[in-house]
Give the backbone structure.
Amino acid sequence: MGERLLKPAEVAEMLQLSIGQIYALLKEGEIPSIRIGKTVRVRREDLDQYITNKTGLSTRGKVNENAPGASP
């Protein structure tokens, strides 16, 4: 596995949210996470999917036609 896993603090910085908000999202399962012992990590792919689901945009900036309010 050559994929780098993100720390919660990195996710918080990327989303411009507090670390507490990130831990709450991780605990609720909103953002999928991987537990390694007591540490928590997030796959970049999972974070990108979370962003896509919340914004209706792909990570490349295309409009998701199925998103509410999207133009046909």
Summary: The radius of gyration is 14 Å. The chain has one domain: 5-55. Residues 5-55 form one domain.
